[in-house]
Amino acid sequence: MPPPVYWAYGLRITSDTALPVLPLADAAVAAADVYLNFRSAPAPDVVRWLARLESTTRDPWLACARTSTGYLLRFEGAADVTVSADGSEIGCTPIGDASDALLQHLVLDHSMPLALKLKGREALHATTVRTAQGTCAFVGPSGSGKSTLAAAFLHAGDDVLSDDCACVCLQRGRAYIVPAYPGVRVHADVRETLVMGKQRAQTTGRRAVKERWAPPQALDAFPRESQRLVCVYRLSQSPLSGDARRPRIESLSVRDGFMELVGSTFRFDALDRAMLAAEFDVWQQVARTVPVRRLVLADDLENEEARHLVQSDLASHRY
Question: Which among 21, 64, 230, 306 is most buried, taking Cβ atoms within 10 Å?
């Protein structure tokens, strides 16, 4: 029996390991755009190291290299991921005792952006939400609250279209988000705050590990059509205290918005001029057609006030 074909980022995906977080493609689909190999990935043959990135705690997190057949992404202490030159094959070799959930997260959310680039598409390090007022994206550095805010929308009944990797395409002068797969990765205290109520969650103190969370019906109702992107919010934490810590939205110029988009791009190979030129061209077009605004957050696990503020902003500006 042939392996199932999944659907994410507008791509047909097959895997040697079951991926229950992904929606299934139409039953008539046979061929795949990307093959994921979690069991016997090829050994990397490094030609040149390109970049090394640190985590929010300044520990080594990701090293990128060119190989004779494509790229190597080395996630420190977790996995070696190889990506073929055309983005059609991704292999994952665990390092240490990394869980299946972590390996799938590294492949689907942090290695897929490179495959998308190699296929001529662009991706933002962003979480995107489809609301009744329009689809918006949240960008910002790791730990800025993108997933936490998106979880508040998800709990309220909106759709989270992507978490970490947001595939962006341009059609007829407009920017669209190509849905990835449902759910967000959040800390346990965030999930418990939304599901069980704030008072109980405050006593848990559980923040160490992020886990993917989505309502039971999220997979069945997940949209597959591209959704027009109407606004990008760059998240930052308020330096103020007391009542002054309430969330607020600030306008950004087109130039500043472009710089925020460039800063939120997955950049694996800064030596590839063609890749950089394509990337800059896309973000210039997006910045001219989609407003980028700064959303200053308070440290709130529920994020209800911020959610309502975003909804009101989307509705009032009629993007």
Answer: 306
Percentage of residues in the chain having pLDDT higher than 90:
63
- For the domain 123-317, what is the CATH code? 3.40.50
Q: Is the pLDDT at 196 greater than 70, yes or no?
A: no
Query: Between 142 and 105, whose confidence is greater?
Result: 105
Q: How confident is the model at residue 63 (pLDDT cuts 50, 70, 90)?
A: very high
Q: What is the pLDDT of residues 139-179, one digit of tens each?
A: 998 888 899 999 999 989 999 999 999 999 999 999 999 99
Q: How far apart are CA 168 and CA 283, in angstroms?
A: 10
